[in-house]
Design a protein that fits this description.
alpha/beta; 7-stranded parallel beta sheet; 6-stranded parallel beta sheet
C-alpha cells in the first residue's frame, strides 16, 4: 500500500495567522487610515477563502493596500516559528519522518514560509508558494505572475505538475484548498478548523479536522493508532485554576469546566464519555461513580488530599489518580503562623469589639509566640516546613508522627501524642485524611492539653471531634482555636454553613482556605496538569497514588504499549509470549508492581499488524490496555 502524499496549506493551517493580515500590522503601523485598510484586507482575505472573489484578484488588491517593504517581510519571517499552530508544533516528528511525502502549497510568500518549512524538515523544493518582487528601494511591487499560485485555480495546476504517486491528501482551511479536491488534483480534502472554520469549505470537505492529530488518525500514518487528543474529553470541576485549562487545551485535549462540585448522582450522569476527571476537595469519586465511568482513564485531584477518591476502586478499573501533594504547602504554613499570632494577641475578638465601637486597649492575655512551645501533629511536608518557620520566630518545636521523620533544626520528636499535648502551648494538626485518623483528637486529648493552650486544625475536618472542641472552648480548657476544615462543608459558596463552633469567643473560623492563595492554586494547577499529561502522553505514573510509579521518557520512533493488570503470577510471561507470537520487536520494557496492581510498559517497533494486539487485551488479569505512538 502506497503512503499518502500530504499537501498542507500555510496560513491558518500550519500557522495561526493570515500572512497578509500580519504584514498589514507591520506595514500600516503608522498609517493614519490603518484601521480602514486593515479591515479591507481582512474582508478580502475572507472573501477569497470563502470563494466569493478570485484569489488572484484578492491578492492584487491586498498588496495594493499594503505599501509593503522588504523590512516588513523580514520582520514577519523572523517570528514565523512562534506562530506555528499548536497541533503542528506537537507533531513536528511526523513532518520530519515523512518529509519526502509532504509539501506546503500556499498563495502566500516563499520567504515567509521557508523558516517553518526548514524547522519541519522539508526540502526547499517542497515549498510551493508565491515569490515577491521588489524594486531597487525594497518596495514590494507584486508577485511573479508566471507562477500559477498568483492566480485563481493555481493550486490544482501546481499539484498536477508534480505527477505525485499515491493518494494525495489536501489539508487546509480555505476555498482555494477545497478547489484542489474539486478539480480532481487531490483524492481527499480535510477542512482544517483548529484556527478558523468556514461553512462553504466544510461543506466541500471529505472530513473536518480540528487538529493535525485528527488527520493522522484518519489516514492511518505516523501515530496511526494513537487516539486524537481533541477527542479525549476532560471534565474539570470546582473552579480548577485557568492555568490547568490552558495547559491541557494547549496540549490538544478538549476541556470542559464547571464551577461547583457534583453529588454522586449528578457525577454519574456527567462522567459518561469523559476520559479525565479533575476535582478538588468537595467532589467524591466513589466506586459507584467509577463503575458508571465508561471511558475514564485518570482522575486529577487539584488539591493535596485524595481521601475523596476511592483509590482501590480506581485501581481495580485501571484509573490512575494524581494529586498535587506539595504545591500549597507554603500557603498552609503561612496561614498557620498567622493564626497562631492572631490567637496569641487576641486580635480576632478585639477586632470584633472595635467594629461594635468598643475601645479595649489591654495587654491582658496578649502574648508573643517567641519562647512558646509549638506541638505539631503530623510532620510531613506542611508540618516540617512549619517547624522551620516557627523555630525562626523563636518557638520551641515538638512533633509527633507515626512514620519515621527526620527532625529539622532543633525540633524534637515526641514518643507519644499524649506527651506532646502535655507540653505544647500551641497544638496544630497536619495529618492526612485517612479514615484511621478520624477523631484522633477528642475530649480525652483536650483534657490532656495544658490549660489555656491554643489549638489549630488546618488538615482535615474529621480528625477532630468538633463537639469536644466546642466544649473545651466553652469551659476555658482551650484558650482559643483556629479551624479551617470541618467534618461537613458546603459544596458551594451558595450553600449554608453551620458548626458547634459558630459564635464562640476566641475562635477563628475560615472556609477551608489554607491552600487558597493565587500562588498555591496556580502551582497546583500546573503540577496536576503536568502529571496528567505525563500519563496520557507517555504513560508516566510518577506521583500516581494508586498505581505503581514508573518514570518514563517520551516515546521516540516507537509505539508504546501500556498494560495494567492485577498483580498475579505469570502475566509478564504471557504478555511477552503474545508479543513474540505477533512478531513484535521489543525495544524496551518496564515492569512495576504493588500489592494490588502490575504495570508493564513495552516499546516496540512501529511496523506491526494492528490486529496482533487483540491478544494483549485478552490476557488473564488484564485491567486496561492502551497504546501510544
Amino acid at each position: 500500500m502506497i503512503s499518502p502524499v500530504f499537501i498542507f496549506d500555510f496560513d491558518s493551517t500550519l500557522v495561526r495567522i493570515e500572512t497578509l493580515e500580519a504584514l498589514a500590522d507591520l506595514a500600516l503601523k503608522d498609517a493614519p487610515d490603518a484601521a480602514e485598510r486593515k479591515a479591507r484586507i481582512a474582508a478580502l482575505t475572507d472573501d477569497a477563502m470563502n470563494g466569493r472573489i478570485g484569489f488572484g484578484e484578492a491578492l492584487k488588491q491586498r498588496l495594493d493596500l499594503l505599501a509593503l517593504r522588504r523590512e516588513h517581510v523580514e520582520a514577519l519571517t523572523d517570528r514565523i516559528l512562534d506562530e506555528a499552530t499548536v497541533s503542528i508544533r506537537r507533531n513536528v516528528d511526523f513532518f520530519q519522518r515523512n518529509a519526502e511525502r509532504i509539501y506546503i502549497l500556499s498563495g502566500g510568500f516563499r520567504e515567509v514560509i521557508a523558516p517553518l518549512a526548514e524547522r519541519l524538515g522539508l526540502a526547499p523544493d517542497h515549498v510551493l508558494a508565491n515569490d515577491l518582487i521588489y524594486d531597487d528601494e525594497g518596495r514590494v511591487t507584486g508577485v511573479d505572475t508566471a507562477n500559477p499560485l498568483s492566480r485563481e485555480n493555481g493550486k490544482p495546476e501546481v499539484i498536477r505538475a508534480l505527477n505525485l504517486e499515491g493518494p494525495v491528501v489536501m489539508v487546509g482551511d480555505g476555498w482555494t484548498d477545497a478547489e484542489v479536491k474539486l478539480n480532481g488534483a487531490a483524492d481527499r480534502f480535510y477542512a482544517f478548523s483548529e484556527i478558523v472554520s468556514r461553512d462553504k469549505v466544510v461543506e466541500a470537505a471529505d472530513a473536518v479536522a480540528a487538529s493535525l492529530d485528527e488527520v493522522l488518525y484518519a489516514e492511518g500514518v505516523a501515530g496511526r493508532w494513537s487516539y486524537p487528543r481533541n477527542r479525549i474529553r476532560m471534565l474539570l470541576l470546582e473552579n480548577v485554576h485557568p492555568a490547568a485549562v490552558e495547559r491541557l487545551e494547549e496540549a490538544g485535549y478538549t476541556v470542559e469546566t464547571m464551577k461547583g462540585a457534583l453529588d454522586e448522582d449528578d457525577l454519574i450522569e456527567a462522567i459518561k464519555g469523559v476520559h479525565v476527571l479533575g476535582i478538588r476537595s468537595k467532589t467524591n469519586v466513589s466506586r459507584r461513580v467509577l463503575d458508571a465511568a465508561d471511558r475514564l482513564m485518570a482522575v486529577a485531584a487539584f488539591c493535596i488530599g485524595t481521601n475523596q477518591v476511592d483509590l482501590d476502586a480506581a485501581a481495580d478499573k485501571g484509573v490512575a489518580v494524581f494529586n498535587a501533594p506539595y504545591s500549597n504547602t507554603r500557603s498552609v504554613v503561612e496561614l498557620a503562623i498567622g493564626m497562631m499570632i492572631v490567637l496569641m494577641r487576641d486580635v480576632a475578638d478585639k477586632s470584633r469589639e472595635m467594629h461594635k465601637g468598643r475601645w479595649n486597649k489591654s495587654a491582658t492575655g496578649s502574648r508573643e509566640v517567641r519562647g512558646k512551645t509549638l506541638g505539631i501533629v503530623g510532620y510531613g511536608a506542611i508540618g516540617s516546613q512549619l517547624s522551620v518557620l516557627a523555630e525562626n520566630l523563636g518557638m520551641r518545636v515538638l512533633f509527633y508522627d507515626l512514620s519515621e521523620r527526620l527532625a529539622l533544626g532543633n525540633a524534637r520528636r515526641m514518643r507519644s501524642l499524649d506527651a506532646l499535648l502535655a507540653e505544647a502551648d500551641v497544638v496544630t494538626m497536619h495529618v492526612d485524611g485517612r479514615k484511621d485518623n478520624t477523631a484522633i483528637i477528642g475530649a480525652d486529648q483536650f483534657a490532656r492539653m495544658k490549660p489555656g493552650a491554643l489549638f489549630l486544625n488546618l488538615s482535615r475536618g474529621h480528625v477532630v471531634d468538633v463537639d469536644a472542641m466546642a466544649a473545651a472552648l466553652k469551659s476555658g480548657r482551650l484558650g482559643g482555636a483556629a479551624v479551617d476544615v470541618f467534618p461537613e462543608e458546603p459544596r458551594t459558596n451558595a450553600d449554608p454553613f453551620d458548626s458547634p463552633l459558630v459564635g464562640l469567643d476566641k475562635t477563628i473560623l475560615t472556609p477551608h482556605i489554607g491552600g487558597s492563595t493565587e500562588e498555591a492554586q496556580e502551582a497546583i494547577a500546573e503540577f496536576a496538569a503536568e502529571r496528567l499529561l505525563g500519563y496520557l502522553n507517555r504513560g508516566d505514573t510518577t506521583f500516581c497514588v494508586n498505581l505503581p510509579n514508573v518514570q518514563l521518557a517520551e516515546v521516540t520512533r516507537a509505539h508504546r504499549l501500556l498494560h495494567i493488570h492485577r498483580n498475579q503470577p505469570g502475566v509478564l510471561a504471557e504478555l511477552n509470549r503474545a508479543l513474540s507470537d505477533a512478531g513484535l520487536n521489543i525495544l524496551g520494557q518496564h515492569l512495576k508492581t504493588d500489592e494490588r496492581t502490575g504495570y508493564v510498559i513495552t516499546d516496540v517497533d512501529r511496523d506491526y499488524d494492528r490486529e496482533a494486539l487483540t491478544a494483549l487485551k485478552q490476557l488473564p488479569g488484564t485491567i486496561r490496555f492502551r497504546r501510544l505512538h
